[in-house]
Write a structure and sequence with these properties.
single chain, globular, 7-stranded mixed sheet, 2 domains, Quinone Oxidoreductase, Chain A, domain 1, alpha/beta, Rossmann fold, about 25% helix
Length: about 350
């Protein structure tokens, strides 16, 4: 089969490798769509260093069951499925509490943050434990279904952890693909005013199109003052979805008493200073959300199935697997939304970056 194998930083090789066979309890999935996450981009470009080579990246997957191993009874060849990016031992305290991403024996399909990395979806086929599969709703495209995991991560941060409430004022710092999903969820939760901050005009235009009440260019003057004029009483909730220390610092600077801040986009080391006394006096809440859980995956699927969230709205580029180098070149640009590798009849023309 064809696969994009990352053999070292900056060395992503399209190669013909052996098609996987399902082991006991495993399923081989013919990949139909796989989103490119910012963590994939960082790994290829050498900005993320917790990578064991060689590896096939790609943890945002949907496809069709191709073959099943022994002891697999609930899936059959031909079933349309979504692949979760992380699994656990199933019996530890964290797994039993539903926090599979905390499991010390967890594994991930082409991602990061777990002790074991299985090959991911930048390939024609992938072998995964059957426990990672969810059924794709018939009305959801493979392209949208591949973004179940990003939607679930945004839901976990915005709704499950930070509990955005009806009428609250929210600020989303960084409205690339994942930030736009956070913005959409704030709006669906009934936020009052939703401010989008980014350095990309394309991203800000998309945020306004999706319902942001205000959009501000982070490089256009004093963005903190601009937000202050739009929200004189300060925000109720701020989410950092940019993945940069400056974005974290901006998020923390916007706090007033009681503000909740979620550090969501920064997944690599980025030290920032915090005044502990001010934190105590303001009773502000600083939290973080990383990865996903089975509960979040199920919620994501329900949101898409019921038409509450359509993640296909944020896709700007699709490429075939054979064009993955071009796809990563587009990822280098700030003027793009979500980039998806698509295999099969859903491949469509993509715009210029």
């Amino acid at each position: 089969m064809l696969a994009a194998v990352l053999k070292d930083y900056g060395k992503l090789i399209l190669d013909e490798i052996e098609k996987p066979a399902p082991g006991p309890g495993e399923v081989v999935v013919r990949v139909r769509a796989c989103g490119i996450c910012g963590t994939d981009h960082k790994a290829v470009r050498g900005k993320r260093t917790n990578v064991d080579f060689p590896v096939i990246l790609g943890h945002e997957n949907s496809g069709v069951v191709d073959a099943v191993g022994t002891a697999v009874e609930i899936f059959r060849p031909g079933d349309q499925v979504i692949v979760a990016p992380i699994g656990g031992c199933g019996v530890c305290r964290h797994c039993r509490m539903g926090d599979v991403h905390f499991c010390e024996d967890s594994y991930t399909t082409g991602g990061e943050g777990a002790p074991v990395t299985l090959n991911g979806g930048f390939a024609e086929y992938m072998a995964v434990p059957a426990a990672l599969l969810y059924r794709k709703p018939p009305g959801v495209s493979f392209e949208a279904a591949a973004m179940t995991e990003p939607v679930s991560c945004a839901w976990k941060a915005v709704i499950d952890y930070s509990a955005v409430k009806l009428g609250e004022d929210c600020v989303v710092i960084g409205v690339g693909g994942i930030g736009l999903l956070c913005l959409m969820l704030c709006i669906r939760a009934g936020a009052g005013r939703v401010i989008a901050v980014d350095t990309s005009q394309r991203a800000l235009d998309k945020a306004r199109e999706l319902g942001a009440t205000h959009v501000f260019d982070a490089e256009d003057g004093d963005v903190r003052s601009m937000i202050g004029r739009a929200l004189p009483d300060g925000p109720d909730f701020v989410i950092e979805a940019a993945g940069a220390p400056a974005a974290v610092e901006l998020a923390l600077s916007l706090r007033r008493r009681g503000t909740r801040v979620n550090i969501f986009g920064t997944t690599t080391p980025a030290p920032v200073e915090i005044d502990a006394g001010a934190l105590n006096n303001m009773e502000s809440v600083i939290e973080a959300s990383f990865s996903t859980t089975p509960k979040a995956m199920m919620q994501s699927i329900l949101l898409m199935e019921r038409g509450v969230i359509d993640p296909a709205q944020i896709v700007t580029h699709t490429f075939g697997l054979e064009d993955i180098h071009e796809a990563f070149a587009v990822m280098d640009s700030a003027e793009r939304g979500k980039v998806v590798i698509v295999q099969g009849e859903e491949i469509r023309d993509h715009p210029e970056p």
